[in-house]
Amino acid sequence: MSSFVDEKTKVIVQGITGHQGSFHAGEMLKFGTKIVAGTSPGKGGSKFMDKVPVFDNVSETIHLKPDATMISVAAPFVKDAAMEAIYSGIKIIYILTEHVPFHDSMEIVHNARRMGSIVLGPNGPGITAVGKCKIGIMPNKIFKKGKIAVASRSGTLTYEIVNAITEAGMGESTVIGLGGDPVVGMNYIDVLKEFEKDDETEQIVLVGEIGGSNEEIAARYIKENVSKKVVAYITGRSAPQGKRMGHAGAIIEKGVGTAESKIKAFGEAGVKVAEYPVDIPSLLE
Amino acid sequence: MNLYEYMGKSIFREYGVPVPDGYVVENLNDVKAFTKPVVIKSQILLGGRGKSGGIKFAKTEADLKKGVTELLGSKIRDYTVSKVLIEEMIDIKKELYVSVTLDRTSRSPIIMATSQGGVEIETLPRENIFIKTVDPILGYSDFMAREAIKFMGLSPEVGKQFTGILRKLYEIFEKKDCELVEINPLVITGEGKLIAADAKVIIDSDAIFRHKEFNVVDPEKTPLELEANAAGYSFIELNGNIGVIANGAGLTMATLDALTLHKGYPRNFLDLGGTDNVEIVAKAFEFVLKANPKAILVNIFGGVTKCDTVATGIVEAKKRYKISQQIVVRLSGVKEDEGRKILSDAGIEAFPGMMKAIERVVKIAGGN
Asked: Out of A248, B105, B243, B263, which could bridge B293 as a Cys pair, Cβ 3.0 to 4.6 Å?
């Protein structure tokens, strides 16, 4: 068992003919992801890399029984693409796109919840069940099958940490990018529940950053509900108040969302926090 | 993007939220004839303007001219006053607070209200604030205002006005893609009328594309930040002396943190994003160089952004901009060996690990 996706997960890619969509769909195929179809309005009837059928609309892919979709369309069109996936009954929706208005994200997330779908992202690098399924843009070569689950609000920093875990001779079970926006579909608690249940996960790494208070909430949750070892890294200790540090969600507002507060909360929950990203493996067992 | 008070109030006026009569001036000649007592408010994005001397009162024509002259062009902390809002003085009997904002954890809008307005909301005990989470799909309904009115103990006459105002605030929050719509204070006048004495509106920067009316220069960004943003880079000026280029917001922040922990001082935040384009890498140096750093650190973990592309871009930038500062590079990930070879052939230092590069650049820039 893995968290959210596994070797049986059938995936479609919304926006498969775009520059980003086509490159990453190709990499996902190399990883072994079961991409059953792609969509691109106006390009229906063609084939992606000579094997994946391309359709105009998500509704035309339903006969292939997709479990998950990756949305890689431009920000103004994300809400419509997500609604299309929700209406088609797709249960896992990963939104890669950055700069989605958060009012759109609120609607997407709440509509999905009502229809029994899960949203991950926006503005995240994807989800990888190592050796089974990759949805998104994480580099294939950084992973090694293992027992450590990772959940993160950023992209490249996640690769850095996963790479450090792999180089230290350990490996990963599931790696999840939650997304760098103020409104994202899954918070730490949602994925911690899955990691706690997952028999392939023994230890958990949380990668957080300034902005909001979801790390603090996660820390309190871990203390009460998580039996597995959890370690963390928090970025943005040196960030000035009121500046948006690249991610729409990475901002200290009115003193809320500081790295100090998050590090303190983790400390109180017995979660060790690494000073540098490369120190994470030394905190694991 | 934070809007100035006068911009927020013009949205309020458009939606029918009562605001004092007033107008904005940028120079003394535009000040209208004095007819009644007014308040002169600096248009700067700073909380606690009054305490910092940014607000003046005028009971005579002479006061008005003196006040406007003193405020325009003055510096309040880091802000230069280029506009003032001249408004009729209102008769304040009581100050309330009301806002609609985003609650990240529930991914929903929340309404906050209190009868203890006029102070910063964060300083109040939680139990003195009415908080209602709104389901974004179900939306706002007037019972929420009734609950708030009961909580604050408002009279029926004031309550009726409050309901109208809250309904309009929520409408503004939704229609204008706001992060925050706040009235503090929401004044009850001597005559029992509710009026928005201040307006704080923050618009989601990612939604500006569908609000051409907010196509204005973000007042909180420096000229260099605006220039770099226009060229497509996520760029923030900081106070140190080490120029920083990295890929990914998280890794860029982690780079600044690591420099700071090593007693190095970053001059900027620059996130290249995911790119495999030599020109995007080379051009990034233009903005870092304009910030005049003592040394430059490039920290790349290659994925979509391949290390050989980055290396080629760095070599190109060094030549194009005749960079005299020392450049320290960390390259790891996709095509790292190729990338480091390109750099060493050009005489640029490159490390495989982040910590070594950090130590090296801090040493060059003169930290500990």
From this structure: B243
Closest by CA to A201, choosing from A79, A104, A284, is: A284
Domains and CATH numbers, chain A: 10-120 (3.40.50.720), 138-283 (3.40.50.261)
DSSP label of B43: -
* Cis peptide leading into residue A122 (ω within 30°): yes
**Is B209 within a domain?**
yes
Q: Which of the residues B108, B200, B251, B334 would you substitute to probe the A interface, choosing the one with the greatest number of A C-beta atoms within 10 Å?
A: B251
Q: Which is nearest to A276 in space by CA: A250, A238, A247?
A: A238
- Show Cβ contacts of residue A211 under 8 Å, excluding neighbours closer than 6 positions: A182, A236, A247, A249, A250, A251, A252, A253, A257, B104
Look up the pTM and report it.
Answer: 0.95
Interface test with B, best of A77, A78, A103 (most B CBs within 10 A): A103
Q: Using only C-alpha atoms, what is the Rg of chain A?
A: 18
How far is Cα B366 from Cα B368, in angstroms, rounded to an integer?
A: 7
Query: Closest by alpha carbon to B10, among B2, B1, B21?
Result: B21
Q: Strand, coil or helix: what is B64?
A: helix
Contact A142 B333 (CB under 8 A): yes
Check if A24 is active-site: no
Which CATH number does the domain housing residue B307 bear? 3.40.50.261
DSSP at A266: H
Kindly report the nearest CA distance between residue B134 and chain A, in angstroms. 11
pLDDT tier for residue A19 given thresholds of 50, 70 and 90: confident
Same domain? B231 vs B346: yes
Residues B315-355: tens digit of each pLDDT:
999 999 999 999 999 999 989 999 999 999 999 999 999 99
Structure tokens at A38: 């792609």
**Chain centroid to CA B245: how far?**
22
Cβ distance B32 to B50 under 8 Å? Answer: no
Touching check for A110 and chain B: CB below 8 Å?
yes
Position B333, amino acid = G
Last residue of a domain, one of B214, B242, B270: B214
Q: Which of B275, B222, B269 has the alpha carbon at shortest distance from A251?
A: B269
ipTM score of the complex?
0.94
Radius of gyration of chain B (CA): 26
Residue written as token pair 């979660």 = A271
pLDDT surpassing 60 at residue A66: yes
